Every structure is written in structure tokens, then in C-alpha cells.
């Protein structure tokens, strides 16, 4: 079993980057690929920080830079998590608390008004919060890569803590046999490294992301009795917004 192949599976699922994966992907490989989600987040974060670097250097307005970065953010992920956010929002509004109806709505590829509003609000929040964060100078580029790492670590945590509800779905194999013991170690290492790299901002992002994860996970448990790939995408998007907000609040307080 190759770690490189498991990472490739995670990269192929969570990004638009072309990845060649010869042979049949086994359920065990897909389950262990969940542990690599934060590393995919790190690649995204580094790509965003490197893209912002020349724009910061020539003095481009932070709002313009933020808009460019969010566009790259969406392109890199193929809007996968935004799609999950939209489907989860539609299910939340349209199901009236009924589990089976919620799952049926999530299967529907159409995007309703709640889903459209959720996408607009998430993108708007990211642009505004990124713009505010970039206004605090070069330290923002150190903090930025931590955001997608934490969000994808939260997604990993979802696979480790709740049952996957959709047989044959995108994350079915990963949800059937998640590697709990090494998974917890990966999450602890991610938290330690994020706090080390980003300092107080990193600690604030970890705390806010953990609170979001616990509240969202508890709600999913009561609402659906588990989670779907759409819910994992929604958690990723929500956690990114919450982490950005926490970083902005800390940077504002440090001024």
C-alpha cells in the first residue's frame, strides 16, 4: 500500500489537478486517503499564498487580491465543497427536518434558492475576510495556508467520527473503514503545526474550527444520523469562513 498513491487519491478527489491512478482503487486505499486531506489543503494554501505574493509586492489593492485568490480557490477545488454547501443548504431548508427527504434533496443536482444564497454568502465572506486579512501585511501570507489545512482536517474528522450515509456515494469506501487510530494522530499533528506556524492566529483558528466541527457534527447526528459527501463539503466551506474570521479578529487585536 503506497502512501504516494493514497495521497494521489485524495488529490484527485479534492482538486482539479490531473492525477494518474493506474489500477483499481481499493476501499482500503480510499479510506486511508482521508488522512491526506489536510496535505491537499496545505498545497492549496501554499498555492494561494504564492499567488498573493507578487500582488502584495506591487501594492495591488487587498480587495482585488482577495477576489483573485477566491477565484483560484474555487478553480483549484472545482467548486466541489461549494456544491456540497449548496446541496446541504437546500436540504436543510426544504426537508423540514425529515431525514429521508433531506437525503433525497441532496441527491438532486439542481440548486435551489437556499443553495444559491449559501454559495453567494460563502464567496462574499471569503473575499471580504481575505481582503481584511491581507491588509495586515506579510504575516497574512503565513496565516493563509493554515485555513484550508484546518478545513480539510475537519473533513477528515467527520469521516472518523460519524457514519457515512450514502452507499455508493463519492465517499462511501472511505466512510466504511476510516483509519481511526492514525487519523487522530494526523489531526493532532495538524493542530500542533498550525499553531506553531501561525501563532496566536493559528490557535484562534483551531479553537474556532473545533467549535464549528463539534456543533455541526452534533447537528448532523441529530438531523441525519450521520453525514454525506455534501455535508462534508459544507463543513469544509463553513470552517474556512470561520477560520478566516478568527484570523482577522486576532490580527485586528494585535494592531
Describe the structure.
With 255 residues, this protein is an all-alpha fold. The chain has one domain. The chain contains 12 helices and no strands. The longest helix has 44 residues, at 180-223. The radius of gyration is 18 Å and the shape is globular. The mean pLDDT is 90.
Helical percent range? over 70%
What general outline do the C-alpha atoms trace? globular
Rg value: 18 Å
Order of helices and strands: HHHHHHHHHHHH
Query: Which structural category do the helix and sheet elements fall into?
Result: mainly alpha
Short recap of the structure:
With 255 residues, the protein is an all-alpha fold.
In terms of topology, how is this protein built?
Elements: H1 3-14, H2 27-33, H3 37-57, H4 62-77, H5 80-94, H6 99-107, H7 113-134, H8 139-143, H9 146-161, H10 172-176, H11 180-223, H12 229-254
Which key features would you list for this structure?
single chain, 255 residues, mainly alpha, 12 helices
Amino acid at each position: 500500500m503506497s502512501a504516494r498513491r493514497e495521497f494521489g487519491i485524495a488529490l484527485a478527489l479534492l482538486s482539479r489537478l490531473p492525477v494518474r491512478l493506474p489500477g483499481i482503487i481499493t476501499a482500503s486505499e480510499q479510506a486511508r486517503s482521508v488522512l491526506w486531506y489536510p496535505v491537499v489543503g496545505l498545497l492549496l494554501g501554499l498555492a494561494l499564498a504564492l499567488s498573493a505574493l507578487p500582488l502584495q509586492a506591487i501594492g495591488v489593492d487587498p480587495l482585488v487580491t482577495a477576489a483573485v485568490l477566491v477565484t483560484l480557490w474555487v478553480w483549484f477545488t472545482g467548486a466541489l465543497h461549494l456544491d456540497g454547501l449548496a446541496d446541504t443548504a437546500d436540504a436543510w431548508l426544504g426537508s423540514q427536518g425529515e431525514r429521508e427527504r433531506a437525503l433525497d434533496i441532496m441527491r438532486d443536482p439542481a440548486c435551489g434558492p437556499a443553495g444559491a444564497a449559501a454559495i453567494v454568502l460563502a464567496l462574499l465572506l471569503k473575499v471580504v475576510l481575505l481582503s481584511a486579512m491581507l491588509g495586515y501585511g506579510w504575516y497574512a501570507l503565513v496565516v493563509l495556508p493554515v485555513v484550508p489545512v484546518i478545513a480539510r482536517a475537519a473533513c477528515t474528522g467527520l469521516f472518523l467520527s460519524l457514519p457515512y450515509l450514502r452507499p455508493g456515494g463519492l465517499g462511501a469506501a472511505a466512510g466504511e473503514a476510516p483509519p481511526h487510530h492514525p487519523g487522530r494522530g494526523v489531526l493532532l499533528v495538524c493542530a500542533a503545526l498550525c499553531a506553531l506556524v501561525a501563532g496566536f492566529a493559528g490557535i484562534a483558528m483551531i479553537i474556532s474550527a473545533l467549535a464549528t466541527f463539534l456543533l455541526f457534527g452534533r447537528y448532523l447526528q441529530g438531523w441525519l444520523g450521520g453525514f454525506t459527501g455534501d455535508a462534508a463539503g459544507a463543513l469544509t466551506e463553513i470552517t474556512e469562513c470561520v477560520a478566516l474570521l478568527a484570523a482577522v479578529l486576532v490580527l485586528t487585536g494585535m494592531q
